Amino acid sequence: MTIGERISALRKKNSMTQPMLADAMDVSQSTITSWENNRRAVGNEDLIKLADLFHVTTDYLLGNKQTPDWASDSDVLELKDFLNSNVNMAFGGVTLDTKQKKRVDEILTQIYWDELQKEKKRKLQEGNANE
């Protein structure tokens, strides 16, 4: 997943439009569009602002680390088990090559973290409601 795809996914996950993100970042909407389409590099200061805004690390945005800060060690192990259970991925009877498997792993990882975060928030809200 590219940095532009990560920015777009985080923006959408946070129910933000491009104009809303542009306002929050104090940049133009065309800058957001350029970032999301990987036509323009994100500067260091903006990278830090994005990470702070979305509560992720700069490494996560850059694709160096896909594990969110809030994830526990057991969450990481569960993800590894999940990904390893899909080792022999195939499409149309043809086994995926290494690059294709990596891309599928990236997508599954993002979905896993998104869904786990929703589940943790739901449990927290249920716990607060029972108090």
TrEMBL record:
Domain HTH cro/C1-type: 7-61
Keywords annotated in UniProt: DNA-binding
Family annotation (CDD domains): HTH_XRE (cd00093)
Name of the protein: Helix-turn-helix domain-containing protein
